[in-house]
Amino acid sequence: MAMLHTVNKSPFERNSLNSCLTKSKEGSTILLIEDAVVGALKGTIVADKLTAAVANKNVCVLGSDLNTRGFTEADIIDGIKIVDYAGFVDLVAEHSNVQSWL
Amino acid sequence: MNCHKGIRLGKSLMKFTLLINEGPYQHQASDTAYQFAKAALEKGHEIYRVFFYNDGVNNATRLAVPPQDDRNITENWAALAKEHELDMVVCIAAAQRRGMLDADEAGRQGKDADNIHPAFRISGLGQLVEGGIQSDRLLTFGD
Which CATH number fits domain B15-141: 3.20.20.80, 2.40.50.140, 3.40.1260.10, 3.20.20.380? Predict the structure, then answer.
């Protein structure tokens, strides 16, 4: 079973999203939560890396954290899925283990 | 019938242990963990233990008085724990360094006050290890 990775800090503040994108295997899932949701936005300096990740990894973003920061589905890169907390729980249950990139 | 509840429901129900390493009102770790715990319990999963470590021990203070229009993180955890009989454990070494004491520890250390909410209990790091062993998933929330 594939692994779930969570990232909770903005890629413009920390390097954790970049580390996660580099180290995570194909077929794994990356869930962006808290300030990391800004990593899912279109047109940023990290957008190309996220677009590349979507091609062979399952990239998700926590919808409430996205909305809380004033963004919607229209603002995020195509292929990134929006999940709620129930979806977060399902992702944890569906993957063999969880790595929090702190 | 000797079959697991989750199998009867056609879904696998799990045990989770949550590790919280960040204090309240700092960023979002405790809030995210709380919302996750609520969502997991609503789905029928079990929260085996919530372990508060490092600055996360500050989530257990019974003396916090946040503004009335803000969430009360400690009371939210306490209410969830009461409803679902959650085991919420505060790391003793991390707590003592930060002046977090229950009545027993205050007496033992010769302090004149205690501040840990009764919904939480003090114990050691072994409880985190045991939580990891007994649970299907261990999730870390921090900064």
Answer: 3.40.1260.10
